[in-house]
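Write out the 3D structure for:
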Amino acid sequence: MMHNPFYHRGAIRHLQDFFGREAETAQILGLLANGQSVSLIGPRRIGKSSLLLHLSRDEIRSQTRLGAREALFITIDSQELGGSPPEEVYEIMLDGLCDAGRLAGIDVELPNRNGSYRALDRVLNKIAHAGIPVVVLLDEFELLAANQHLTPYFFARLRGLTTKYGLAFLTSSQRPLFSITASEEILSSPCFNIFVTLSLGEFSREEARGLLASRLDGFQLQFSDSMIAFLLDLAGNHPFFLHIAGYHAFHFLSHGEGEDFEQIEKAIEMEAASHMGYLWQNLSEGQQYALAVLDGPVDVMRALEQQCLVKLDVSGHGFQYPNELLRRFVRRQSVPGLVQASPFIIDLQRHKVFADGLELELTTSQFDLFHCLAQQAGQVVSAGDLERAVWGEALLDDPDRLKTLIKRLRRAIEPFDSWIVSERGVGYALQPPD
């Protein structure tokens, strides 16, 4: 049995396993080398923690005069500090400084290492006199920023350390700093004015293809061109989804099950669903609606784009889903004001119908008829129920009026006309053509 080279559980901790992000790495290290604090933002599972670990490695830092003997890097997981008082935060920073100093051959130990601002200040003063810069990496920073025990005075003190000793911070969070603080009072702290904000998004298509290839480097087993195209279409350029897709494809192939695209697809969708469910549940109703119809206010679409849930289409004016996994997931969700019957979306608020993103021009009667069919997609709806949906209980001496309207509706929804299937003597159904 071969070791599966794809990762999708936790951060990537080994240098040989890290792929891409060369531009982001160079930009961040360049800013830190100049004493500039950086706020790295990006959606869950986009690779923020992996990048912070990568930046903390001596092999990477030394490229910009920030090697282990040239600068002290402290990495702190803010998950440990979500409910901590200031003294615990100071103590963890102090421990990190002393450990990093020992590795750099600098004696920064205190006789009594207690968790106080004064002790931290003394150590930083000692390091500053040695001419060595300090960088503090704070992963999951939103948990620290929203800590109810940390006051504006605490954050002002952190800002003071950057002024006195050139201390720089590198934080990572899912949302911008202005939206994650515990209170408006903390947001006004000068500490939050010192950061350059950088967004971490999906790979380019070339990087996505490169990730799949790099993970198989040295393996006799390789993905065929058709397998690569299939995985890229399903997972898009998202590193987390690419690892999931690659993992299951490798698993099937290494177990001699061949390129069974259908089974591989099922396994990938099943595993990706939990992550997409988390993202969906953390959207507002307005954001869910905009994501389903791929349209909405500018600020809403910008927020969805920042979370890698939409991207600009080829025209540059509209939006599309970044991968097929997400498109299918959204189509399965219940959204108030929408009827979804893939590939169709009925927008009840705006009285519009879309098919694969293309708006269909329907009359009021055609809209009501199509709405009734879509509500019971995959089932045969009786002629009587369809007539009542369109004309209510009004009686008209025209036995062919429904047939005529169905014929006009089919013409209006071309090339999707074959989705309306007739069941002789019973009614009609909206379902995939045979």
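The first helix runs from residue 22 to 33.
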